[in-house]
Amino acid sequence: MAISGLGYFAIETSETDKWHELLTAVLGMGSEQAAGVTFYRLDEWHHRIAVYEAGSEAVKAVGWQLEDESVLDEMVASLQDAGVALAPLSPSLCDERRVTAGYRFEDPVSAMPTEIFYGPVCEQLPFTPSGGISGYWTGEDGLGHVVYFVADYEQAKRFYTETMGFKVSDRIVWDEGEKDATFFHCNPRHHSLAVMPPFGDIPPGTFNHLMLQGLSINDVGIAYDRVRDLNIPLMMELGKHTNDHTESFYLVTPSGFGLEFGCNSTRVGDHWQVKTYDAPMIWGHRSP
Fold first, then answer.
1. Each residue of 105-145: pLDDT tens digit?
2. Whether 168 contacts 107, CB under 8 Å
3. Same CATH fold, 139-284 and 5-120?
4. What percent of the chain is helix, strand and coil (3-state, nearest 5)?
5. What is the pLDDT of residues 52-76, one digit of tens each?
6. Helices (H), 44-201
């Protein structure tokens, strides 16, 4: 029993036009509009990101993929054994998500609206991003990664490893211990999930960022220039991480949380060794 990867990400927002500009004009995704929602495509899946019209900003769903029906059933049993209440995705919601079957629940350690599923719908024809973006690193590595601020750090680490089957990749502790992050993998991507205890005035249950991975540094550089040209606020400038060697930048999305766009990330293997780092960046990633 194990998660295969981050499958999809859905949000509710009052800033649909700004999100559309970001995902299409900056990041080169394709789009398909339906009643109250726009679906964004970046690979062979019908969509990986869904943006719903709403009066406020919220994460609507973090979707984790399972290999097949039997593994989905095993994950449901594991979550139920941990006291998590789940509800099946209705046929209409499965159709909206473009998946075969799944369940939804509130993540008990992050409070994120979470879905587990199998059987995504893939399109007949291949997809090529627009505007010079060469493509996205997905496939067996999944969509990318998400990072949460959690109230109970130790409970979160136990839940994600013991109940959901993630494995620890490594840890970063910096700023004299004020900031601490643990990174988890479920496929060759260095991490599909990371969690942190809150610091400063950040409340627990806050969604920190979504990461997407391009195929080359040119993709990252092209997007970086467009972000600056459009005056989209940066969270962190271009830099390179210590633990996964990702070369990336972070922008502030129209919903207020972060989006990291990077490339050249390290992948984990059979003989991976867990390490602890004393800083998150080798160079760059400075606040603007």
1. 999 999 999 999 999 999 999 999 999 999 999 999 999 99
2. no
3. yes
4. 20, 40, 40
5. 999 999 999 999 999 999 999 999 9
6. 69-81, 91-97, 153-158
Query: Which bin fits 119, alpha (ψ -120 to 50), beta or left (φ > 0)?
Result: left
Residue 278 CA to residue 203 CA, distance in Å, equals 24
- For residue 2, is pLDDT > 90? no
Q: Are 164 and 115 in contact (CB under 8 A)?
A: no
Can you say how many angstroms the Cα of residue 28 is from the centroid of all Cα atoms in its chain?
18
Q: pTM of the prediction?
A: 0.97
> Domain map of the chain by residue range?
5-120, 139-284
Burial class (CB in 10 A: 0-12, 13-18, 19+), 168: middle
d(CA 202, CA 179): 12
CA 220, CA 90: separation in Å to the nearest integer?
A: 38
Pick the closest to residue 15 from 54, 49, 62 (CA basis). 54
d(CA 274, CA 288): 31
Domain 139-284 has CATH 3.10.180.10: yes
Q: Which helix (H) or strand (E) holds 150?
A: none
Chain position carrying tokens 């869904």: 50
Q: Report the top-level CATH class of 5-120.
A: alpha beta
Q: How many CA atoms lie within 13 A of 61 on its CB side?
A: 23
